[in-house]
Task: inverse folding
């Protein structure tokens, strides 16, 4: 049994199958995660290398993940605003198909902010 802490329920007991160690191969930061057996909330907590070693030695499985490649992409143009999001929400409810809305949005973006920012 492994004792961990849920932010809602406090101390809970878990088996090695309930817990996963997560290692980010981009930052080499690690954490452990579980679903609370009482309230079912997903809990993730940072873990130092010493804790990771203990967890892995006790038979907990390791999942290696990496940051998405999109983080390294160059960002151009203005960030979307709350108004942009609201307008898109209303457009989605208007019955127009998504391809048409996206084509119109891309055309407008190119008119407003695109070429000078992309260059
Ligand atoms: Zn809980």
Result:
């Amino acid at each position: 049994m492994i004792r961990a802490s849920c932010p809602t329920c406090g101390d809970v007991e878990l088996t090695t199958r309930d817990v996963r160690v997560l290692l980010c191969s981009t930052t080499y930061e690690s954490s452990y995660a579980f679903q609370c057996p009482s309230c079912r909330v997903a809990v993730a907590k940072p873990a130092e290398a010493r804790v990771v070693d203990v967890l892995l030695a006790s038979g907990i499985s390791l999942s290696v993940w990496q940051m998405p490649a999109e983080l390294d992409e160059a960002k151009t143009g203005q960030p979307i605003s709350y108004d942009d999001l609201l307008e898109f929400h209303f457009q989605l409810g208007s019955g127009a198909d998504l391809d048409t809305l996206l084509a119109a949005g891309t055309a407008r973006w190119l008119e407003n902010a695109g070429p000078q920012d992309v260059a």
Q: What stands out?
A: The helical segments are 49-57, 82-92, 98-112, 114-118. The chain has four helices and six strands.
